[in-house]
Recover the amino acids of this structure.
């Protein structure tokens, strides 16, 4: 019988649009859909080209996972997630979604252990990973300054030679008994290894 689930380390990326609720509040649903279609199209293209898998879309949030493939997790997978976060923001800069909306985003990235549902990973399905790292990434994204990519200390420690960071003040987040260290990704550095 083939393995259906496995424990492994992954990097999770959450991105959302700053001020999305107020932006769409008075818009017709067809305009909201056009905005989402443009936004999700740009984000998913950058995620996939960076080696990630889009796990889900919720409202304006996109959750993507890096390091679930056969080669497994390593510094390159985590660095790819950070590069994707920076690249998505660059790709959205100057774009008018639905032909008229310039948006700002914020990205949160966390690295940790999860259980991976292998069938869902192959099918790009919802619920492909389970673990607290998912909520950590979502919480970090909520605390990210506008137009920035922030990461947890685990992501920073495995990518420190590949990405330049600025340390930010720790944040207290709901559901966590201790403050989370926060680092702003500035730019790629070093060389990404290709296996």
């Amino acid at each position: 019988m083939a393995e259906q689930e496995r424990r492994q380390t992954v990097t999770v990326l959450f991105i959302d649009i700053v001020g999305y609720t107020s932006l769409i509040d008075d818009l017709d649903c067809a305009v909201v859909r056009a905005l989402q279609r443009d936004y999700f199209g740009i984000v998913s293209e950058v995620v996939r080209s960076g080696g990630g898998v889009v796990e889900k879309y919720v409202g304006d949030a996109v959750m993507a996972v890096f390091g679930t493939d056969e080669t497994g997790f390593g510094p390159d997978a985590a660095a790819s997630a950070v590069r994707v976060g920076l690249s998505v923001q660059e790709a959205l800069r100057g774009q008018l979604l639905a032909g008229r909306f310039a948006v700002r985003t914020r990205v949160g990235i966390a690295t940790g252990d999860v259980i991976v549902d292998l069938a869902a990973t192959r099918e790009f399905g919802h619920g492909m990973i389970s673990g607290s790292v998912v909520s950590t990434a979502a919480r970090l994204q909520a605390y990210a300054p506008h137009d920035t990519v922030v990461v947890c200390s685990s992501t920073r420690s495995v990518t420190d030679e590949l990405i330049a960071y600025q340390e930010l003040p720790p944040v207290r987040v709901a559901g966590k008994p201790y403050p989370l260290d926060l680092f702003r990704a500035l730019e790629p550095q070093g060389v990404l290894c290709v296996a």
In short: The domain at 5-188 is CATH 3.30.70.1230 (Alpha-Beta Plaits).
